[in-house]
Amino acid sequence: MAILLLLLIGFALPAGIVAYIVYIAFIKKRKAFTALEEPDDQAVTLFVHGATIESKHKNRLELENFVDRLQWALGNRGEVRDVNVNAEMATIAIFGESADEIYAHLRKILRHNSFSENASVVLRYGPPGSQERRIHMAN
User: pLDDT tens for residues 70-96?
Assistant: First the structure.
């Protein structure tokens, strides 16, 4: 009887531990992350004027470095999702939970970077068509 009990504990205990680890790792974790999701329909859009980026390789690399610095400064508060470049300007769209919080974290980089001279910033407080606030950067 004691041997049967030891065998049962010897196999049941590790199996129970593995089942608990699987439960925590996959089921409970997934529920926790879905509960943390919040809408990120607010946006900050940067319009960098007069940037002939397509014709100059150096400016294209500067733009990529600038976008990387913006994303790094944001951390988990927002995400750079769209970068469009044409002969007249570059447009950088950043989405997150709060347009004011995004702008507060990007303001120092925008003010101290020659790439954002005479840029326009549009803060949108909701989905497209919502209230907007425009800021002109005059470095």
Answer: 998 888 888 898 888 887 788 999 999
Q: Are 134 and 45 in contact (CB under 8 A)?
A: no
Alpha-carbon distances, residue 33 vs 36, 41, 97 (angstroms): 5, 18, 16
Distance CA 70, CA 107 (A): 10
DSSP code at position 116:
G
CA–CA gap between residue 137 and residue 134 (Å, rounded): 10
Whether the CA torsion 25, 27, 28, 33 is positive or negative: it is positive
pTM reported for the whole predicted model: 0.66
- The answer to whether residues 138 and 118 touch, using CB atoms and an 8 Å cutoff, is yes
- Tokens representing 139? 């470095």
